[in-house]
Amino acid sequence: MAKKEKEKDQEESTQQQYSTLREYFIATVYCTIIALFVTTYVVHPMTVPTPSMEPTILVGDRLLIDKFTYRNSFIPGVPLAPAHHLQRGDIVVFKYPDEPEVLYVKRAIGLPGETLEIRNKEVHVNGEPLVEPYKYHSDFENGKDAGNAHFFSFDFQRDNYGPVTIPDGHYFMMGDNRDDSADSRYFGFLPEEYVVGRPVVVFWSYEDDSDAYLKTTLPEMAKLYLERIVFFFTRTRWSRMGHLVE
Predict the structure, then answer these.
(1) pLDDT tens for residues 52-79?
(2) Which of 75, 155, 168, 214 could form a disulfide with 146 if both were Cys (CB 3.0 to 4.6 A apart)?
(3) What residues make up the domain containing 123?
């Protein structure tokens, strides 16, 4: 009798273990599905590796990207849900046209149907100079060859460009750091279907080296992550935590 009770207790214990494991497995699957849905359609984290948007966005800023509102304006979306139509001056995250797996962040400067021209660093839209309080110039020489900046063999269109007419469904994107930005002056117009979303807030900012994104070998990556752990408190820009991106 005691033996049967012992076997029954062992069987119940095994069933309970299987039940607990099953619950953990189902919970993990649900959480994974929800996380994938959220990062694909709603919000997504992004690290900024280059200074092309300085001083608005710094190297090492970690951003949360709103992927929902732009998508909801480009295609039929969720009824009564918020939608944001892309406007001039919006900061946008998008797929780099030449490498769609790479994300870029720039500001929308030219809209569909407009004529855009850059004369001596000043942007003109439909013949009128554009007021741009956000832009920054580190080099005040016009038409200067910048020496293979961003791996381009020449840089003469940096300060004088166009005029060009922006096609329907396309945008002209530029970095705020005008003298150090690989943008539409080089890769051309941005198709609206390449728009991913807009950065909303800096959730963490770490003072990475300006060439950190070029470190791709295993020893370089290991050293980079070790430095981030060691210098976490001293290199974190605490004042930028929660900073809204505008």
Answers:
(1) 999 999 999 999 888 877 776 666 655 6
(2) 155
(3) 42-205
